[in-house]
Design brief:
Helix content is 42%, strand content 15%. By secondary structure, the chain is α/β, with parallel strands linked by helices. The protein has a single domain, classed as Rossmann fold. Strands 1-2-3-5-4-6-7-8-9 form a nine-stranded mixed sheet, with helices on both faces. The protein is globular, with a radius of gyration of 20 Å. 44% of the residues are buried.
Length: 386
């Protein structure tokens, strides 16, 4: 029934795991230059080591049981199931907080930070800073359903999130996110400002544009430098965005058929975008990395997740002339994040109340530095709770 909410448990058929094992064993490896390193993409020796670990040491059943300790549900949006975690806070007045993941992540990104936010008193914090956490999976990702029609863009997802929060009984709530989670949270702030007590972002996209039209202040030297940095980054690192925004179906045939191909496509971003010293395991556990890939593999959602880029390309979320995000906004910068705009650029678009920089971390902050990010989220929302 549309609008219904039911509890959900992650299950896996034995046949699916047996098929995965056989595919891993039958991997057909590409060649590589002797001194390639990571210069041309995911390193061959790294992937060989990951394959051995995946086959010999990784335990999906253990990971599945760990994930199922969280309270999972699915919401029926007009026949499209929306998966989410709904974890009540432990404190005198927990604030509902909607946290949204990005690509190539999943709801798994929030599992390390979740207890720090829902039960701060048990983790060196103040119980008065507790949040009730709602962590949905974007449509087309993981255990949410795969859209069959065009139009499931960031604004459509924001509307679904508002609908979900109404179904859960939350009139006002906070929103937090990075990557696509930041886009969706910004769309929530634009289309449903009366619902949000605050907006906290650990990433503002290189493609998000404030109003720069007639009558707005000229770009500062710092902003000009930022745009040049973005252009250089897009030239060197933006190939994935171009293909996922134009021809994701073509790419999906290979990634949906090969678990090593899928892992290589995903883990190259975890290596390139996280605050590591050479491999993503420097900051994110190998089990978490593989479990995130497993969520894509077992649900066969790599194409539907990549297609989100095509939807965003078809309908860009830019501010219209005179438009401004009025919701109180906090932005945190991380040293190994992909290009982030300077403060002046952010102030053009947002009602900026909080601007901080963390000492460590990259694009996957909730997994890399959950303690640091949790402390910043608590600090931002503390004056907005009344």
């Amino acid at each position: 029934m549309a609008g219904s909410i039911e509890s959900f448990t992650i299950t896996t058929e034995a046949e699916a795991l047996a098929d995965l094992t056989e595919r891993l064993k039958r991997t057909r490896w590409p060649d590589a230059l002797d001194d390639a390193g990571w210069d041309f993409g995911t390193n061959l020796d790294y992937m060989r080591g990951l394959q051995r670990y995946w086959l010999e040491d990784y335990d999906w059943e253990r990971e599945r049981q760990r994930l199922n300790r969280f309270p999972h549900y699915r919401y029926d949006h007009d026949g499209l199931p929306i998966h989410f975690i709904h974890a009540p806070g432990k404190g005198p007045d927990p604030l509902p907080l909607l946290m949204t993941h990005g690509w190539p992540g999943s709801f798994l990104e929030m599992t390390r930070i979740l207890p720090l936010l829902t039960d701060p008193g048990a983790h060196g914090g103040d119980a008065r800073d507790a949040f009730t956490l709602i962590v949905p999976s974007i449509p087309g990702y993981g255990f949410s359903g795969r859209p069959r029609r065009r139009g499931m863009n960031v604004e459509a997802v924001a509307d679904i999130w508002a609908e979900l929060m109404t179904a859960l009984g939350y009139r006002r709530f906070g929103a937090q996110g990075g990557d696509w989670g930041s886009w969706i949270s910004i769309a929530l702030a634009l289309h449903h400002p009366e619902r949000l007590s605050g907006l906290h972002l650990n990433y503002v996209s290189t493609r998000f544009r404030p109003d720069l039209g007639p009558g707005t202040p000229p770009l500062t030297e710092e902003e000009e430098h930022y745009l040049k940095t973005v252009a250089r980054w897009a030239d060197a690192e933006g190939a994935y965005m171009a293909i996922q925004g134009t021809k994701p179906q073509t790419l999906s045939f290979g990634l949906a058929d090969s678990p090593i191909g899928l892992a290589a496509w995903i883990l190259e971003k975890f290596r390139g975008w996280s605050d590591n010293e050479g491999v993503p395991e420097d900051v994110i556990t190998r089990d978490d990395l593989i479990t995130n890939v497993m969520i894509y593999w077992l649900t066969n959602t790599i194409h539907s997740s990549m297609r989100f880029y095509s939807e965003a390309r078809a309908k860009l979320l830019h501010l219209k002339p005179g438009e401004h995000v009025t919701v109180p906004t906090g932005v945190v910068r991380l040293p190994r994040e992909i290009p982030m705009p300077p403060r002046r650029w952010v102030e053009r678009a947002f009602n900026l109340k909080h601007w901080t920089s963390l000492a460590r971390g990259g694009h996957f902050a909730a997994l890399e530095v959950p303690e640091l990010l949790a402390a910043d989220i608590r600090a931002f929302f503390r004056p907005l709770r009344s």
